[in-house]
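idk why but the lab printer keeps eating my pages so im just putting this in chat instead. protein + flavin mononucleotide:
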Amino acid sequence: MKPCEQKHSSLHSHTAIRPTRYGPRPSLSSSIAHKRFVKAMSSNLKLFQPIQVGDMALSHRVVMCPLTRSRAHASHAHSDLAIEYYSQRASVPGTLLISEATFICAKAGGFRHVPGIWSTEQIAAWKRITDAVHIKGSFFFSSFGLWAVRLIQRPAPRPLTKSEIREYVEAFGTAASNAVHGAGFDGVEIHGANGYLVEQFLKDGVNTRTDEYGGSVENRCRFALEVVNSVVCAVGASKTAIRFSPWGDLYEERMKNPVPTFAHLTMKLKELYPDFAYIHVVEPAATGDRDRRVLQHESNNFIRDIWAPKALISAGGYTRKTALAVAERTGELIAFGRPFIGNPDLPLRLRYDIPLAASNRKTWYTHLSPKGYIDYPRADEDPRVVQSKL
Ligand SMILES: Cc1cc2nc3c(=O)[nH]c(=O)nc-3n(C[C@H](O)[C@H](O)[C@H](O)COP(=O)(O)O)c2cc1C
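predcted complex ->
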């Protein structure tokens, strides 16, 4: 693996509210809305206490999971609907949002109406969205998403050639640079979960290669580590993160024992990148967009043990009660997926124990439709909730 020649973290060191090349980020600290939210969120409960993650000063520990919603144009450039959608979910200042999985290059696609980040049009569309999130005082990581979807689709999956591996590793770096330096994201979360390309290398149920990218734990982790290095070289370690789902089995990518592989990867990341932004783990209770039955021995505690005391985001099947308990015990950030679809102001609802709205599954992936996307009310717009709580 070629180490980075440049130290990007110092080249692009930012404070939480920073000037971008498109102009200064608006100062929120003096706005009335900001002060109102900061006051409303303050609490003795750990879940609602501030935390520094990479370069970001988050005001609480509720995170929005990557959620594919299929609202981009056919060109894979996001529609303006996404400006409203993400801006609604950024409404509590200091929230970390993680974007839906995004294609890093045209070849890595496969699903219609999923956004990309390789063309000028796509980068400009994302910039309008990151601006809207930043105006709310929140933070935005881009999740990609090497979705090299075609490679997992039947009937004929095939291993990548060595030159394709090099091409994809490089494409990850280019996409990271597009995301941070072009589209204004605060960082990049590499999609190493849910059966997509990086995970296909990691899991021995899928990776049947006999070269240096297959077989041993070290070999199966090689591609992931090359991708991480490519992204770190492009944007710096403090703006780089990765998502894992060791127990996930959405595409039958099950491992008999994922512990040695994910333990090795976690150790390597800790050793190589002391400034790494965070690791995001999907708990055994979820796989892809659904619940999963947890077996007794399944737990991500081995990752926690290695990674501590660095920032860890845990996702998958959380309720208010379990999120409060885990955050209290570990200080971790808790990411919510499905609950964020129907509850644009989820952090505030959790803070005040306001009942959560269910989302309509049928509109999760409706192409380009505003329905079920930007029409879920905030609690203070909904007459059924107790206004006095706010
Ligand atoms: C509609 C929908 C789309 C999703 N899209 C993505 C995605 O793009 N990338 C990803 O890593 N996970 C994706 N997930 C999984 C979620 O990020 C999350 O791990 C999962 O929903 C479990 O969390 P929850 O129990 O809070 O919903 C998706 C889930 C749903 C429901």
